[in-house]
Amino acid sequence: MNKNKKYTKINKKKYEKNYEKKIYIKNLDIKDLKYNILDILKKKFNEIRKQKNYILTNDGVYIFNKDILNHYNYVNKTLHETDDFIELNDYYKFNTTVYQIPHDHYFLTILEISFNINNLFLTFEINNNKIQDFYIKTNSSLNILDALMIKEISYIKQLLI
Predict the structure, then answer these.
(1) Cα–Cα 20 to 30 A to 24, which of 57, 116, 139, 160?
(2) Three-class SS of residue 104?
(3) What is the pLDDT of residue 20?
(4) Each residue of 69-123: pLDDT tens digit?
(5) Taking a C-beta distance cutoff of 8 angstroms, is the pair 76, 90 a contact?
(6) What domains sit in the chain, N to C, each tagged with a CATH number?
(7) What is the arithmetic mean of pLDDT over 2-29?
(8) Residue 152: is it exposed, middle or buried by C-beta count within 10 angstroms (0-12/13-18/19+)?
(9) Under 8 Å CB-to-CB from 10, ≥6 apart: which residues?
(10) Rounded to whole angstroms, how far apart are CA atoms 17 and 21?
(11) With 80 as the cut, is the pLDDT of residue 150 above it?
């Protein structure tokens, strides 16, 4: 019987989904960024652009996926926090497939521009030609408590200001 318990624990970890982590730099505001930061980064690093379309409602987020409208709940968990950084795990958890857009809704289009810097993705979210948010995305097993990760994030911070 103990073998079955051990197998179940291993099996759960094996199939547990890993979501990208977001790392925010505290005390660094959008207005603190270098003028034309996106143009500066384009000259130095590879750029990845994605357009994301959301339908926001009072009961969650709706996203079209392969012409099918799905309802999601937003999940946000703080993994680690220091005086300088905050590491989050946030994602949209599937709720159900729906066949009609709710009456009260707001369409939101976000252009996500990411720069690959040492396998960390410095990401900017653009709406109406303005930077609305920026953070670092990673799937790394390192976290903001590790010296190597702190060094990498500090390098990115220096690029921004």
Answers:
(1) 57
(2) coil
(3) 86
(4) 999 999 999 999 999 999 999 999 999 999 999 999 999 999 999 999 999 999 9
(5) yes
(6) 19-160 (2.40.320)
(7) 66
(8) buried
(9) none
(10) 12
(11) yes
- Phi and psi at 158, nearest 5°, equal -65, -30
Query: How far is Cα 67 from Cα 4, in angstroms, rounded to an integer?
Result: 42
Please give the helix or strand (H or E) that residue 112 lies within, else none: strand 106-117
Residue 18 parent element (H or E): none
The full length of the chain comes to: 161
3-state secondary structure of 32: helix
Count CA within 13 A, CB hemisphere, residue 132: 11
d(CA 105, CA 57): 5
Helices 37-44 and 147-160, axial angle in degrees (round to 10): 120
- DSSP letter at 35 equals T
pLDDT tens-digit readout, 19-66: 689 999 999 999 989 989 999 999 999 999 999 999 999 999 999 999
Q: Which residue has the tokens 């790392």?
A: 23
Structure tokens at 116: 């690959």
Of residues 20, 126, 160, 3, the one with CA closest to residue 79: 20
DSSP 153: H
